[in-house]
Amino acid sequence: MAKLQVAIDLLKIEDAIALATKVSPYIDIIELGTPLIKSEGLSGIRKMKDAFPDKLVLADLKTADAGELEADMAFGAGADYITVLGATGDATIAGAVKSAKAHGKGIVVDTIGVKDRVKRAQEAIALGAEFVELHAGLDEQAEETYSIQVLIDEAARAGVPVSIAGGVNLGSIAAVKQSGVTVAVAGAAIYGAEDPSQAAKELKELLEA
């Protein structure tokens, strides 16, 4: 059964916790987005984990160097997962994986900006990542030609555990699920909704259908 992850790109941890409180009954993984991490630092991770000890907390660090050190910092603050950029070197991913194994946690490799996401996903899993995020960032999604179908097709081809982030919503989640993802990541579809709790509930129901 695929997990549902909420990506929270708010800038204050109090607002993020308030949103997470509304949607937590339907969410498996709570992601502190990179802007939130940059705004609140490690203490934001700790506050979120303290508020939701029974949920998996993902810190979207997008680590590009010093993999083991940054992973140690985030895991020490209560994160269950951290992201490492797929565009970085294998040694950085391997260092983060070493830290994850020591803490009993997981590394997610984020393919934002990677040209061949499928190939890098396969390499990242071989290096010990728990799953790989096939990710079209906000800037890529804003391009006129963007379609989530590209990620859906890549997920079906990858043959390794992946998540999809980049336009997961009520209209696309059935196809996202069909592609065989481990995790579906919804951001704006939840935090931008008039009723985030209802949006999360509907997404979860479609994911479990």
UniProtKB/TrEMBL annotation:
Give the reactions, separated by semicolons, that this protein catalyses. D-ribulose 5-phosphate + formaldehyde = D-arabino-hex-3-ulose 6-phosphate
Q: State its Enzyme Commission number(s).
A: 4.1.2.43
Q: In which pathway does it act?
A: One-carbon metabolism; formaldehyde assimilation via RuMP pathway; D-fructose 6-phosphate from D-ribulose 5-phosphate and formaldehyde: step 1/2
Entry's transmembrane regions: none
Instruction: Please provide the record's keywords in A-Z order.
Output: Carbohydrate metabolism, Lyase
**Where in this chain does the record put each Orotidine 5'-phosphate decarboxylase domain?**
3-203
Q: Does the keyword Lyase apply?
A: yes
Q: Name one Pfam family in it.
A: OMPdecase
The family annotation for this protein states:
Belongs to the HPS/KGPDC family. HPS subfamily.
Which NCBIfam families would you find in this protein's record? RuMP_HxlA (TIGR03128)
Q: What is this protein called?
A: 3-hexulose-6-phosphate synthase
